[in-house]
Structure prediction request, 439 residues.
Amino acid sequence: MTEVGLNTSVIEDIGGRKMGVIEIYMMSSQVSGIVLATGSLREVAQFVAEWAWDIWWALVLGFTISGAIQAYVSQERMVELLGGRGFREIGLGSFFGFLSSSCSFAAIATTRTIFKKGASPEASLAAFQFASTNLVIEIGLVMWILLGWQFVVADFLGGVFLIFLFAVITKYLIPNSWFESARDHPDETGGGMQMDTILSLLLRVPKRLLSSFSPRSPSTTTSSHEHKHTHEHHHEAHTEHNQMPSRIGWRYAFRRAIHEWKMVWSDIIVGFVIAGFIAAYVPQSTWTQLFALAPQGTFAWVALGSLIGVIVGIVTFICSVANVPFALVLWSAGIPFGGVLSFIFADLIVPQIVNIYRKYYGLRMAITLFVSIFLVAFVSGILIHYLFVGLNLVPQATTGGAVSGTYTLVLNVLFTPLFLAQVYVTYIEPRRGSYSVSA
Prediction:
């Protein structure tokens, strides 16, 4: 037997090759790393599966309601109502945004269309664009389930703050000539991001609602023949689609709901996976140390949390509904209440969306929108934090949503057939040659 010292001890592997202790240690470390990685990946899958299960029924319900509402809309009429720069137009822009799609990319495309057709910056870029991504039904349902009702209320009130602050900036701080240049800027998407073509579901306003407002006169650039043709076209479209709850009307609404899914499913999956990886791989202590750079409870702590929320919202590249699972990760890790809201509000300045701003409106307006939204998301988070602290409505960090496991099971069982019916109406029924109403 060969004698060796402690540090050069050897053992013989199955093949007869001698391995030193250091080599054995390195191999064992690699094996341990693989086991740990496998365990972490299992945690990621568990996080994603649990979140998906918890919010499945809410997504189906939210997209169904959104599809049904959008079956009633007239985008041209909406533009006529949003030309002014006062509170009325801001309120209408927010309301129409609330009724629209939750997809951030769809929202900025629709905003671009109504802005370039004459809607004011306050009603379009501030009110409509923000409300259509952060104040829609489905994101409220998901926040209620994962975070709790307090966050739903905070998201709504914080959204009001943000829209008001953004409208002040667009009306009083940004020169009107910049907006005119943005309207005249040629589209640089080159057809690759023609959202209006992708979205045949640009918002339409209920006719009975519109009848209560005084319409503006038609544009002088539109001939009477064109105006008549447009009116007849929309009359036929509404006659065909808006006989709710007729069978054709519901089929049309179901297809709009599936169209919503097609636009956001990838964002939702990416958001869940990113949140899952961060929850599994980033230690809680890392976030705790980051949020503890300022003494807890001080203004500096709240401001730092809101700043971190905005920055993380930008660099994580996820948007709208997909932000909520990651917001839960941040909230559980100790970010201030307002920081969660600032994170959610930052979904309109992720890099790919800012690049679309550049293509739609030019570099100057893209930078202006980025700086403005960054600022108002930061400030709104601070304001809503202190408002809820003053009202004693800030929940415990361990508080989750309001739907128990039993109710989640029942609701998922009830809403899954509805989703399957929407899939059938959208993809299977047209192949049989019946009800060929397109979304």
Summary: The chain has a mean pLDDT of 74. The chain has 19 helices and two strands. The chain has one domain: 46-215+233-432. The CA atoms of residues 314 and 351 lie 7 Å apart.
